[in-house]
Write a structure and sequence with these properties.
Shape: globular
Number of helices: 19
Helix content: 40-55%
Number of strands: 12
Strand order of the largest sheet: 9-6-3-2-1-12-11-10
Structural class: alpha/beta
Largest sheet: 8 strands, parallel
Radius of gyration: 23 Å
Strand content: 5-15%
Distance between the termini: 12 Å
C-alpha cells in the first residue's frame, strides 16, 4: 500500500519535451526546458508530467519506441553541446526544413544527426581523461541494456530501417558468432549510439537537478507494451508471443471504446507472462528501476492490462475480434515493491474498470485517473469523471494527450454535422456549461473554469495539459487515437508562458490549497 504522504495535495502541468519551443525543430533538454521548470515553480506547481522519453519508432509515437530503456537523441540540446565546446556557433543555426510550431520528424532527424555526429567526433578527439572515465562508468552502470540497444540501432540503420524480422536469419535469431561479427563491423556506429545515450543521460541529470532545486517533481509515462520494432523484443524474444520468424502470434489492443468503434489495434507483441513469472519478473524490475532513475513518479499506461488484457490474433485488421486474458495481477507489483521499496505509481485505469481492476489498483494504493472531459457525455458511468464523485486518492486531468483540447472539444459541439453526432456534442456542451455554472456567452473562459473545477476537487493531484491552460484549439491536440498521421507534432510558440500566466495559475493553486509545502516527500 502506498503511503498517503507520497501524494500531498498538489497540481502540475502535462507537456511533452517535444512540444517545448526552440530553434532546432523539436523541444529538447536545453534552455526552454530549464525555463519551463522556472515557470512551474513561479506558478506554484509541484509536477511536470511528460510522455515517454524514449526514441520514437513507428508513427513517431513515444508509445512505440525503439527501446523503453534508452532516451531519445532528438531531445539532446545542441546549445548545451556547444557550451561544452563540442559544437560551434554555426552548428546552432536552424535548418531551413524545420518549422517552429510542428515537429517534422524526418527533417529533425537529418538536421540533428549530422550535428550530433560532429559532437561525437569532437568528443572522441578532444575528450579528456575525466570525460572518458565518466563515459566508462555510464556504460558499466547501464550494461544490462545499453550494448544491445546500441547494436540494434546500428544494425537497423545499416538495414535501411527494415524490420528486424526481415534481417539475415543469423542476426534475426541472434546467433552468437553473428553478433560478435556485427559488433566488430559496426564498432564506430555503436560507439556513436553509446555516446548519444551518455549525452542524453548527462543533460537529463542537469534538468533533474534544476527540478529538485525548484521543488518540481517529474511524472513519467510507462507504456505497458513495447514495440515489435525495438531492441527490447529483438534482444528478449523468449519473453514475447512470437512465431519462428519473430512475428507476433497475438498482439495488443483494446475493444471498441470512446475513441473508436472498431477498437484500437496497437499491434504490440504480448508478453509470455508465465516465463516472466518464472524469472521473478526480472525484465520488468529492470524497467521499473530505469524509469525511476529518470522521474519521481510513474504513470502506468493501460493499467487495466496488468489485470486483464485484450488479446487479438496477429493477422487481424481491427481489434474488434479479440478476447480478454488474465494478466500478471498483484504478483508483478508485489515483486516490484519488494525489490524497489515504496514508489509513486499512478494507475492509468481509463476504460472498462471491472471490480478486479479496481481491487488491484486499491490493493496497492495507486491513485487512479479521472478526466473531466469524459464527465459530460451523459451516458451511464460518465459521472465517475465529475468532481462530486472523486475520492481523494486520484489524479484529475482536464484532458489527456489522447483527447482534444478543452477549447477544441467545446468547439466541435457547434460545428459537428448530424453524422458526426452534433446533437450529442451539443448535449455535452450544455451539461458542461451547467455543471461549471457558466452562461452560454462564457465560451472564452471555459478552459479556466475547467482548470478551476479540477483544482478545487478533492483529488490529491490535479494535472492540466498545457494547451488547456492556454485555451488553445484542436490545432494543439497531441494525438488522435486509431489514426496514423499528424500526431505527436504540436509545439508551443515562443513566449507561450509568461509571468502573468504564472501569477494567475499560482493564485488559483493557492486558493484551492495546492501550493507546495516544502520539499517533495521521499518515496
Amino acid at each position: 500500500m502506498q503511503d498517503q504522504q507520497l501524494w500531498p495535495r498538489s497540481s502540475g502541468i502535462l507537456l511533452h519535451l517535444s512540444s517545448l519551443p526552440g530553434g532546432h525543430g523539436i523541444g529538447d533538454l536545453g534552455p526552454a526546458a530549464h525555463a519551463f521548470v522556472d515557470f512551474l515553480a513561479a506558478a506554484g506547481q509541484r509536477w511536470w508530467q511528460l510522455l515517454p522519453i524514449s526514441p520514437v519508432g513507428k508513427g513517431n509515437s513515444p508509445y512505440m519506441p525503439l527501446s523503453v530503456f534508452a532516451g531519445s537523441p532528438l531531445f539532446i540540446s545542441l546549445e548545451r553541446l556547444a557550451a561544452e565546446g563540442l559544437l560551434g556557433a554555426k552548428d546552432l543555426k536552424p535548418g531551413t526544413a524545420l518549422t517552429p510550431l510542428r515537429v517534422r520528424y524526418p527533417a529533425v532527424v537529418r538536421f540533428k544527426r549530422g550535428r550530433l555526429f560532429r559532437a561525437f567526433t569532437a568528443f572522441e578527439r578532444d575528450g579528456g581523461a575525466a570525460a572518458r572515465a565518466s563515459l566508462a562508468a555510464f556504460c558499466e552502470a547501464q550494461g544490462a541494456w545499453l550494448p544491445e540497444y546500441a547494436l540494434y540501432a546500428s544494425l537497423r540503420r545499416r538495414c535501411g530501417g527494415r524490420p528486424w524480422t526481415t534481417w539475415d536469419p543469423a542476426a534475426r535469431r541472434r546467433r552468437p558468432a553473428a553478433l560478435r561479427r556485427l559488433r566488430r563491423d559496426l564498432g564506430a556506429e555503436i560507439s556513436f549510439r553509446i555516446f548519444l545515450q551518455y549525452t542524453f543521460h548527462r543533460q537529463w541529470e542537469e534538468l533533474r537537478r534544476r527540478c529538485a532545486c525548484r521543488g518540481i517533481g517529474l511524472i513519467g509515462d510507462l507504456p505497458i507494451y513495447v514495440a515489435l520494432e525495438s531492441a527490447d523484443v529483438w534482444a528478449n524474444q523468449e519473453l514475447f508471443l512470437l512465431d519462428a520468424s519473430g512475428l507476433p502470434t497475438h498482439v495488443a489492443g483494446v475493444p471498441p471504446d470512446y475513441f473508436s468503434s472498431t477498437g484500437q489495434l496497437w499491434g504490440n507483441p504480448l508478453y509470455r507472462w508465465e516465463v516472466l513469472r518464472e524469472r521473478g519478473y526480472d525484465w520488468w524490475l529492470a524497467r521499473f528501476r530505469r524509469a525511476f532513475a529518470h522521474v519521481d513518479a510513474v504513470r502506468l499506461d493501460h493499467f487495466i492490462g496488468f489485470c486483464r488484457y485484450w488479446e487479438v490474433p496477429g493477422r487481424a485488421r481491427t481489434a474488434r475480434h479479440g478476447r480478454w486474458v488474465e494478466g500478471p495481477g498483484a504478483r508483478l507489483f508485489e515483486a516490484a515493491l519488494a525489490a524497489l521499496g515504496p514508489r509513486r505509481f499512478i494507475a492509468e485505469d481509463l476504460g472498462i474498470i471491472t471490480k478486479e481492476v479496481a481491487a488491484l489498483r486499491d490493493r496497492f494504493g495507486f491513485p487512479g485517473l479521472r478526466v473531466l472531459q469524459f464527465g459530460f457525455g451523459g451516458e451511464a458511468g460518465s459521472a465517475y469523471h465529475l468532481p462530486h464523485s472523486y475520492p481523494r486518492r486520484c489524479v484529475v486531468y482536464t484532458g489527456t494527450h489522447d483527447n482534444d483540447t478543452i477549447a477544441g472539444w467545446f468547439a466541435r459541439a457547434e460545428s459537428a454535422s448530424p453524422r458526426q453526432g452534433r446533437r450529442q456534442r451539443q448535449r455535452e456542451r450544455a451539461l458542461a456549461l451547467r455543471y461549471l455554472g457558466l452562461p452560454e456567452t462564457a465560451r472564452r473562459d471555459l478552459h479556466w473554469a475547467m482548470v478551476s473545477v479540477a483544482m478545487m476537487s478533492v483529488a490529491d493531484v490535479a494535472i492540466v495539459p498545457m494547451p488547456d491552460l492556454l485555451g488553445l484549439g484542436s490545432e494543439a491536440r497531441m494525438n488522435v487515437p486509431a489514426t496514423a498521421r499528424g500526431n505527436w507534432e504540436w509545439r508551443l510558440p515562443q513566449g507561450a508562458w509568461s509571468a502573468e500566466l504564472a501569477a494567475r495559475l499560482r493564485l488559483l493553486t493557492e486558493t484551492y490549497g495546492r501550493l507546495p509545502g516544502g520539499d517533495l516527500p521521499p518515496p
